[in-house]
Design brief:
five-stranded antiparallel beta sheet, 19 strands, alpha+beta, single chain, about 550 residues
């Protein structure tokens, strides 16, 4: 303990007062009966090996949390496996975050992990507010000492703290914003949790230009200065500046609800006529914005782009017959359809598209006579890879120039193609109207930033054929079940993307209804219509 720390035992609870800070009540009961060998790893001269035992885990966690609660950063850090890194972070809890009291209550150990809740008080310049959250620690065997030690991670202090980041309390570095949707309805993190990282980014970028004033807050300051701060607690509100977004509160609410059905789900909705982003949602809702920054193979949803390229080149048309065998060999690589289905040779390209026939697309590769054709189509027509300026950090997709079997895999959205829900929603929006309009989440007029523009549009004839094929998919093809509840002029495309080392494919789905396009992905969700389909349908119903 620090000099002057006092410890009393009252009803099985440590009451610790350190340095006059009043730092902490620590519940020492971690679960279990406390029986067994009374010799701890710290007291034993024997260098132990193997995983720590139950009693070691409980006593190590006990010691660490008690030291932390008492404000003794040095003692707490000494019970971790990375003392030099842990100590300044622990010390910063009082010095930088201005936590003046902390009550840490652990739960029963689950294996090597010990969960706990923190009920703290933050005080700064006469402003005081309670602060509660939960986290966990893990206990491991020290590599050299053999002692049971806390496996140091920044998340031990707070679940959202990252490597090199700092917890701070003070006057916020940028003014708060009041983000509103296109109709003026307020958007906040509590109501729309997926917008958390987006609102933080918008505040960092536009907070000083919206006429607001800073407040007093507790926040996470990331190591990377390009990333936004994450506000955890507001002690005194500043005057927020109003920030107009392109989002739609109803579509956003539907998106938030829809992604909660599936872990690893992301969805984005875009208005084809303007490029306005109407909704963005992720599950989990905090941290990485996978919907706009993810990078993964989109499966057969990319066939929208491939179909556009084949029709533009005159290789096929929506009404032309096309072969769809159960499998096909291309340059030593075998491609097959789901469950090895095949279609009669008299069936049209629309049927192959609506049924998501892989082999129909692969068999047309040699007729293209240009390995780079799909990459050119992606860039020149659909705006993929053109450095989008959405208003927040986003990734604009990638279709690299390839050859041979890798190029063939790209035709069906596999191989080196990398997309996210935003990219596929934009591809659908482009197919809907024939012209790429770069997606935006705040109006361009806010800062006059340059928007990406594609070098050409699809012809009205190609646009009509793509819309007809997507309508077929929604009315009687693989998207029928998911789109049954969606009204208006509607179309869809399903996708299932295989991932190396993953037993179940990722579920992808994209669709449109009138002037709204949406796309979703569900990690390990299986068939596109089964998981991602209902997510897209829910958003289209709310926003179309």
């Amino acid at each position: 303990m620090r000099s002057g720390a006092k410890v009393a035992i009252v009803g099985g609870v440590f009451v610790l007062v350190a340095g006059g800070l009043g730092y902490g009540v620590y519940d020492v009961v971690l679960g279990g009966d406390g029986g067994g060998d009374t010799e701890t790893a710290a007291a034993s001269s024997e260098v132990k090996t193997g995983p720590p035992g139950k009693q070691e885990i409980e006593e190590t966690a006990k010691g660490f949390l008690a030291a932390w609660a008492s404000g003794d950063a040095q003692a707490a850090a000494g019970l971790t496996n990375n003392e030099s890194v842990a100590e300044p972070v622990l010390a910063g809890y009082a010095d930088d975050a201005h936590v003046t009291e902390a009550v840490i209550t652990p739960g029963p150990a689950v294996g090597t992990k010990v969960p706990y809740t923190v009920k703290a008080t933050v005080s700064y310049e006469g402003k005081t507010k309670p602060w509660s959250y939960s986290s966990e620690l893990a206990v491991v065997r020290g590599l050299t000492t053999g002692k049971a030690l806390v496996d140091w991670e920044p998340t031990v202090i707070h679940p959202e703290l990252t490597e090199g980041a700092t917890l701070r309390t003070g006057e916020s570095s940028t003014a708060a914003i009041e983000a509103v949707d296109h109709n003026g309805k307020v958007l906040d993190k509590e109501t729309y949790p997926s917008l958390g990282p987006i609102l933080d980014s918008l505040r960092k970028k536009y907070g000083d230009t919206t006429g607001g004033s800073p407040g007093i807050e507790t926040w996470i300051e990331p190591a990377d200065e390009q990333l936004p701060d994450t506000t955890l607690l507001t002690l005194a509100k500043g005057k927020p500046g109003k920030l107009q977004t392109t989002l739609d509160a109803d579509a956003q609410a539907a998106a938030e609800k829809a992604v909660k059905q599936f872990s690893g789900a992301s969805v984005v909705a875009v208005r084809p006529s303007t490029g306005s982003i109407r909704a963005v949602a992720n599950n989990p809702a905090t941290g990485f914005n996978a919907a706009m920054q993810g990078q993964q193979a989109p499966g057969s949803t990319l066939k929208i782009m491939t179909a556009a390229m084949l029709i533009e080149k005159g290789i096929t048309s929506a009404t032309s017959p096309i072969e769809c065998p159960k499998d096909v060999m291309y340059q030593g690589n075998t491609f097959h359809n789901l469950d090895y289905f095949s279609l009669p040779d008299s069936d049209t390209f629309t049927t192959s598209f609506a049924r998501s026939c892989n082999t129909a697309f692969i068999k047309k590769i040699d007729d293209v006579h240009d390995d780079a054709a799909l990459a050119k189509e992606a860039r020149d027509v659909f705006g993929i890879g053109l450095d989008w300026k959405t208003g927040v950090v986003s990734w604009d997709g990638s279709v690299p120039e390839e050859s041979g079997g890798v190029a063939a895999a790209q035709y069906i959205g596999q191989g080196t193609v990398q997309m996210n829900a935003l990219n596929i929603a934009s591809i659908t929006a482009t197919a809907r109207n024939g012209t790429f309009r770069q997606p935006v989440i705040v109006p361009q007029s806010l800062d006059d930033r340059p928007l990406a523009t594609a070098s050409r549009s699809l012809s009205p004839n190609v646009t009509r054929q793509l819309n007809d094929m997507m309508r077929a998919t929604a009315s009687w093809g693989t998207g029928k079940a998911a789109m049954a509840s969606v009204g208006g002029d509607k179309g869809a495309k399903t996708g299932s993307a295989e991932v190396d080392g993953q037993g179940t494919s990722n579920s992808w789905f994209t669709g449109f209804s009138n002037d709204l396009a949406a796309a979703a992905v569900v990690q390990s969700g299986g068939h596109g219509g089964d998981a991602a389909g209902p997510v897209v349908a829910a958003v289209l119903r709310a926003g179309s």
